[in-house]
Amino acid sequence: MPKKKVVITKKTDKPAEKKVAKEVKKTKRSKKDLITVTGMRDILPQDQRYWEKVRAVAKQISKDYGYDRIDTPILEYADLFTRGIGSQTDVVEKEMFAFTDQGGDDLALRPEGTASVVRAYIQHGMLNNTQPVKFFYMGPLFRHEKPQSGRYRQFFQFGFEAIGEDNPALDAQLILMGWNALNDLGIESVIQVNSIGCRDCREEYKKALVKYYKTKSKSLCESCKTRISKNPLRLLDCKEDSCKEIKKDAPQILDYLDNNCKDHFMKVIGYLDELDLPYVLSPFTVRGLDYYTRTIFEYWAVDDSEGKNALGGGGRYDSLVKILGGREETPACGLAMGVDRIVAKMREKNIEVAEERIDVFVAQLGDAAKKKAMVMYETLRKNGSFTVSQAFHKDSLKKQLEIANKMRVKFTVIIGQKEVGDGTIMLRDMQGGVQEVIDFNKIERELKKRLEKYREGAVIDLTQGEENNNKMSGNVSGGINENEEKNEEIEATERLDLE
Ligand SMILES: [Zn+2]
Ligand SMILES: [Zn+2]
Predict the structure, then answer these.
(1) Is 365 found in the same domain as 344?
(2) Which positions are annotated as binding L-histidine (predicted)?
């Protein structure tokens, strides 16, 4: 009998039956119209600042420790993952989005990042570069998991991989990098660390595990009963209470490490101590993927008492390069952080992420002014020292000022008919409500100067400026503090100008 094929190609002998099944699904969904696929979601504009913050921190960490960005395709040949992650793992066996494409290739949406990076390392001959080669990646991953809170079928990770070096300082530094990322985002975390040894010592440990669990098999859950023969390490991950109880007395991997693996692990721990990182030894942490060797670690928020979702984790994977077709044994170590979970944690803890504020809004009144403003905008947006926005699709000055207020810009520049005529522009301080008329050609310089002062925290009194033309517009007087009043005034101006 052929082994159960891991890749879900959905080749069926009964196309008719399949068609029926599909139609049933379709009717079920049609009521809901077009919505996101189960377990997937949109990340809306108003939430982006959290994501942007996480990306910015990840990028900064990559720079601080010399990891270079790599982007690999979302779609890969499925056997990259079956070979890399292991066909007996949940990720490959149950959760991979795998299919056969029109050309007959078995493909999969990447369920994790490491295998792809290693594939790229081999494919592009980076074994010949100075080692280690250090990569940084960021992007979506896909797993067909049971939908539950905090887990998505398209989820995002950023990660770091250092390939071609076995020095334990590298393990410790990667552990530090993940912890730093969380810390920089305001999340307090504890690191769980373990070593699962090399292939050799792990074999000894597996034997001990099997021996122990066989004596307890009557009390194990159904999944664990099959795990004894299929994937004994996974016995330690079981969430069933009865299995958790049995785990307490299970043999611990640390007692089975050979001298080299023990020495490596003690050095890693020594560096963590030196760096004063908050870690705990976690003898039963094994992580779900087959490729790990020696050091493994996970990050847990200090307030995640239920131990539901690790915020990230990683480990050493000294045999993966060879498994995926590399010429020689190539040690490597990496980590990946779950961006969705990190963002959720930031929101849960009310960690504030400042909205990016626009500095200057360009408003216009009348067609000639609109044309002039559109041209000026092209100059202003390239100035490099302040940010600009506009609403040229609006004709009403009142509406434009409402938009500017909503954006909480610091300054609005206004061009009306009068200003077009005499080559001036009105500059309005949105907080103080003070307005002044200045030379159109000096606008960029004036804005720069004022924003510099603004950023220094100085009180800006536009009426006292040395070079300022203090003549107020004939229609709009300065010194009005209430926005409503300002807008009414502007509205009056608008009517006046349009007449
Ligand atoms: Zn070993
Ligand atoms: Zn179990």
Answers:
(1) no
(2) 112-114, 143, 157, 161, 287, 291-292
